[in-house]
Amino acid sequence: MGNLLWTVVVVLVAFWLLGLLFHIGGALIHLILVVAIILIVINFLTGRGARI
Length: 52
What we know:
By secondary structure, the chain is mainly α. The protein is 77% helix and 0% strand.
């Protein structure tokens, strides 16, 4: 499950960079990136990050 989370994070960051460089998606890209960061923080706080 941890690998899936990291895959989602990498894909979201890639989309964020594309949106930042080419001005695609506007605020939606940034909102999705914030959601991904919140998921990472929750993952580390609940201790699931140690089992990767």
